[in-house]
Fold each of these.
Amino acid sequence: MTDASMQGGAAAPSRKSSIHTIDARTKKRNAAEARFKAYGLAAILVGLFFLVVLAVSIVRNGLPAFTETTVDLEFVLTEEQYQEAEGTLFKTAAYTDFFIAGLREQLVEDGVEVAFDEDAIERILGKVGGNLREFYRANEDKLGEPVSFTMSASSRVDGYMNGRVTRDGLEDSRFLMATDLDLVDVLRDAGIITQSFNWNFITGADSGVDNPGGAGIGASVVGSFFMMIVVLVLSLPIGVAASIYLEEFAPQNRFTDLIEVNISNLAAVPSIVFGILGLAVFIQFMHLPQSAPLVGGLVLTLMTLPTIIISTRASLKSVPPSIRDAALGVGASKMQAVFHHVLPLAMPGILTGTIIGLAQALGETAPLLLIGMVGFVARGYPDGFVGGFTEANSAMPAQIYTWAARADVSFYEKAWGGIIILLLFLLTMNIIAIILRRRFERRW
Amino acid sequence: MTVKLTASALAIAAVSATAAAARDNVQVAGSSTVLPYASIVAEAFGENTDFPTPVVESGGSSAGLKRFCEGVGENTIDVANASRAIRSSEVEACAENGVTDIIEVRIGYDGIVFASQQDGPAFTAFEPADIYNAIGNQVLVDGELQDNAYNSWAEFNSDLPDVEIAMFIPGTKHGTREVFEDKVLLEGCESTGAMEAMMEAGMSEDDAEDACLDVRTDGKSVDIDGDYTETLARIDANTNGIGVFGLAFYENNTDKLKVATMSGVTPNTETISTGEYPVSRPLFFYVKKAHIGVIPGLKEYAQFFVADEIAGPNGPLSNYGLVADPELAETQAAVANEETMGEGM
């Protein structure tokens, strides 16, 4: 270029160029580069925009799930009332009636001057009977003594306190009347209805559809946890052993090629297929219990294995051959070279791959649909460690799916809240993966 | 690969040896319409008795009955929920797998309502004929049977708003679809005269009935295979949309939806229980008699479900939107006596 312009000299001013004036072709090239940079930037900005929209909508929709509206009341249940309630078939309803009567007395005592009809208190309260019965069955000595209870209010009162429910919106509602809100206002001013952090959402189990206040994600977190144990215990050793054999020991022939192709294909199989397989093999053929985290874990193991094998093989490959040669050179056997030198160096990569595979399995719903983990399943905590594997339980994504399909809007909020918890778990796992990689990764 | 499979099979066998202990909870699966009620009962059953809370899975009536009919034994379900009666083909499939004694329990009635956006056009009164004219495949125009080309509701009924037709109806996997076809489409087909015209054109009565159930495929009628929440989302996004919901779902979302009358009757638990409101259907669950006495709490669960305190007019189910069965006492007796299908009917 410089040669050409020097030869051209003053005779051809159009071809003359200097580093101070930029010619048309350079301009064009610079413009193309600037355009490409702009495209890239735009792509990143669009991606960021969607991420922000997603994060904002998740947080905005999910935060109400973490506050609960409660009714605080000091309440006395007499021995006779206890016996009477225990004598009925629908005991919890009897407890609820006593609690409502107690709240009504309290209101009369306080001199509340709002007109409210017979059932207003029932509509304001959530389902309290179950908690009351549980408490008094465990503490019979508290009968006849005043005990202060904090009971959840109904989902619509909760919505009113959060601003989701308005007076206009209650026009046709049978579950809470617009007039009841006057009573709610008075109770709030009297400090009987308060809002607090909803611990029950984090520690509780699933509840019936008419009891959104009692629903929590805790039991399904436990279900997910036991599933992840199964996945980890089975897929890590199997996956690592398979990769070491394929990478270090297996002869290169048609047969191993076939296996390799199959593993890569298996990684791309839709997860629902593993669900159908799980139903047919584990439940119908092997007679494992239905809806159990054990079966869920086995299905997810099948799904996670290819991911772990592929990432393990990649990290084994990235260990330089000189390490193996050096080990073999000083007289180590093949196995010693692999286990004393290659494997420790590949470990950060293997762990990262495993954690990412687990995170993927943690968020998987489709296969769980088929093995009966969707519905009213996460009803309580399992009984002991073995029970955690065999007793019917749900998993976090399945629980979120269940809640999103329920009629009451409060459950929809809970579904978003559940997404926040699930994302926190995924984020933690990914951060652990990153830290492991940063800490232990060796570069050559 | 084979090595891996054997290894995992060994691991499974080791765990399953401990897992094969007796199941102590009732296992239920089936209709997503019955699921809400079953979950209310299951929770109450767990709270009020010493039995563990039953597990209630969703998945749809047909899927539930299919699993119910897989056989007898602990790894099969005890109860199938259904939003329609069991079909004779399903009874046969059951019998083939050894499930012969089935107790049918009717828990009450479910109303099916038509609702549109709260702020949308005034869709407040429908006749079955209107729905048929809107989404039927072949409609009668000026005495001629032709492919449905209506774009707006006002074109066939000047009382209805002049807005584009957009209906969201339950997909064919739902039990609700069957009721919608029987009580609305077929009814409308007959009352508009389309069915008569089809039969005059040479169709047999059965063929004409089938043809009446065909809905137009030009996108004005959309099948929803998901739950009512999906229908609600579609209605939210479309001012002119009309959706088909269960009564309980509508009552839980009155702030977003307004309901239309059918043949002049407003749907609520009263009009449905008296039969005035035409579009309703019974809900059932089916109990495997062979499991009673094997699975603890199974009979107690069935009895608890249909007790007056639960399924009666003032119970939690009716409070949530189930229309109580006026003949509940007979059902209670049938459950108490473990009357199987064919015996008491």
Note: Residues 1-12 of chain A have pLDDT under 50 and may be disordered.
Amino acid sequence: MSKIHVTTTVNGDEVDFLCDPRETLLDCLRDRLNLTGAKEGCGTGDCGACSVTLDGRLVCSCLVLGVEAEGKEIGTVEGIADGDVLHPLQKKFIEYAALQCGVCTPGILVAAKALLEKNPDPTEEEVRYWLAGNLCRCTGYDKIIRAVMDTAAELREAV
Amino acid sequence: MALDDRKTDFKFVGTRPDRPDGLDKVTGRAKFGADMYAPGMLHGAILRSPHAHARIVKIDTSKAEALKDVKAVVTRADFSDEVEFKPGLEGEFWNVLENVMAGEKALYDGHAVAAVAATSALAARDALKLIEVEYEVLPHVTDVDKAMEPDAPVIREGAADYSVPEGMHPNVVRYHESGHGDVEAGFAEADLVIEDHFDTEATHQGYIEPHACLAMLGNDGKGELWCCTQGHWIVQKTCAALLGIETSQLRVTASEIGGGFGGKTTVFIEPVALALSRKANRPVKLVMSRSEVFRATGPTASASMDVKIGMKKDGTITAAQGVFRLQGGAFPGAPGDFTAMCAFAPYNLTNVRQVGYDVMTNRPKQAAYRAPGAPMGAFAVESVIDELCNQLGLDPIDVRLKNAAREGTKASYGPRYPRIGLVETLEAAKAHPHYSAPLKPGQGRGISCGFWFNHGGETSVSLALSEDGSAQVMVGTPDIGGSRASMALMAAEVLGIPYENIRVTVADTATLGYNDVSHGSRVTYASGLATIKAAQNAVEKLCERAAAKWGIPVDAVKWENGCAVPSGPNAGDFDPLPIAEITADMGRTGGPISGHFEATPEGAGVSFGTHIVDAEVDRETGKTTITRYTVIQDAGKAIHPTYVEGQFQGGAAQGIGWALNEEYIYGEDGRLQNAVFLDYRIPVASDLPMIDTVIVEVPNPGHPFGVRGVGETGIVPPLAAIANAVSNAAGVRMRQLPMSPPRVLAALKGDG
Amino acid sequence: MVEVHLWSGLRSLTGGREVVEVEASNTGELLRELVRAYPQLEGPIQAGVSVAIDGRIIASGLTEPIPEGSEVYLMQRLRGG
């Protein structure tokens, strides 16, 4: 089957790849660009482990085709830290033990970052509903919610 | 382990440092099962039966093989023919082989029948469509009670073991009966006897990471396997047997594991990937889709249970009896024996009798799920106790305290308990502000106790010191929930060096001796014990070097705060010798210094917990909301308290899903109806409240620091505690899980 | 002699007895002697058993000593999740 050439921007870097028109953006990120931070937990948009941003919008990359990335800006977990400086969310996730196995963590970090950019002062309920599309089977969410709330507070103070 | 080498004052243990793999896990660097690639790699895909029960008449793979992108096709003929069928669990290799690739019959919807390896994942999936399988569809059964009826279709003749009494249906494959006293006499003494029937549905462990592996196997019988697993030695042993190769020629490396909860203690795709690789002579990557995970990997067993308990007006239980029928799919293994042994274990009973059945049906082979078998039994037993308390007007914690098992109590499963912490958890529950907090209208409160055995298992640990005095620890138990942090804390405690100076690695099968799976809540207990012993072994050698340097006997040297010091004023006057000064020239003072420990520790120590739940029931929709949740559990000694809390919270959350939403739904055609996360709904963040925790510490005499495993017990009380809360809120006893809105609504309307 | 308490499901294999006596000083000997005295116990012992000695559960070890006068129970082999 003939492949399609896609040029896109990932975490600020211009990249290009060839892909089958049936391949998802998640497949392309992982198999074509070696960015394995986004995970496939379901392939049906239910678990959020593959969360990335597409032109700033939070999406499940398993529900986006690779060819749709043409000309877009994609943000993944690999782009959250600023060089060797972790994003406050990343620091708080470690500090709060907001992960056990860590497989849902990349998606949750991408989603939580998108939340805080939109709403710097979310209530607990708002955090819970925003992250309702990101499944975690290990933690019961308690420490995740606390880590996100505390990061929000810290970022507000820093402003 | 003698009591006298137990430590009680700690410098590192009990602190909450950052986990060593934290950076990898928050940056996307951590490599999970599907994150490995190899040059020349092929992609595998598995063809699965659409029928619940069917004879495989013929498989024609010729059209798939003719595709140029396809490099290998395998069926059952590509696996070892020397794996022997035996009844019950004795022939577990045969059971696993039959499960990973069907032989004469497809036994459930989703059962693997053939597999292909092709140059891309899409090409592999396309090729599956060209494999022609001729099935002769057979009658099927998916319900546990129906599978025991005389006219039920027989899944497999001869699968029953020695334990099954004569006259039972061949689908009953194992039977357990235990207890003591005279239950009939006990019931006669009671002021109130309640007997009731309870059902639970099968639930899936629901780990977010689907099974994934990368396999290489040559015709020389040498192989490499990378996979997500709770235990890579069991993978090595099983794959070698199923493929007919030498165990030690297959090197298995455990990837980071994206959750397991018992479901990754066996193999599903690994032998298939190896068989494809052997045939294609190229590396093969195989990754399950979510629907494959639901259809073909182990859910837990479903259960049908009858429980009868007699109580005096003062709350004394006079007798207890339970019959627990567990369905574990098309193979022996449903933990009816464990349900029976755990169900009444929290209580001091004069008269108790428990019966467990392991029943086969046309469903996927059940796998262990966090305290396998225990949550269902606790649901039935603790519901009946709650109902007795309600009808006799007694406080549910007081009644449990009155009947609680203590040190010396004869357990319902036989022996007497050593030091246990059930009473302490009940007392902490009673004193907790949650228990006395007022309830709002429409809310109900539920209590439940829970018990799990915990496990030791084969364990090897090696610890090597570096010249700068730092240490590397090699363990063989995959880190599911932060165990590298607790291993480093325990090693730091013994060595007296900073936590940060210790690197813990999960070693592959070629670099360490055999290790049992990360299951049975055993990692912090057993790998922890072995880490402590390995560190002590290294400390002995450090002391020897110091003694030689000082020219004094080794027993005149002791280890303190990371330094060798003279053991007393008579030993001589020497300045403390820090570890780094000893290791700096260790190559010239006797060679590298390492510590080792290998054993099967036999002192895991049983564990108890008590949960308090508040639930609110919407009488119009039947929807239940958990408004407050408190977990109280005995951890023996919490090495890293934050991760102990995490285990408590995770167990409770999984229990909430099991109680309220999760279930395997089969159609009349025997096909699984809800094999996606949208329809099999595990709890999401907006479903849950914060989950409060209380860590009780009643030291386990079997561990040098007092550790009891904490991973599993936390899922035992939730089903019952939530059912009691919902029943008390709704004013109707809920006897069937999950308590989904339609089921609660039906109960409220009186036709449930 | 060690008094061994069996689980009641095993009674049919020991002529109705739930407590049997064998000569043994460790767990391995105990299992061997049980099979010698009651050959039908081979099934359950092959399938896997654990032994509790004075309340301490020995999941699988065959070398654990059994002190004189200890209370010994045969149990189903412990498994984990």
Note: Residues 10 and 18 of chain C are 7 Å apart (CA to CA).
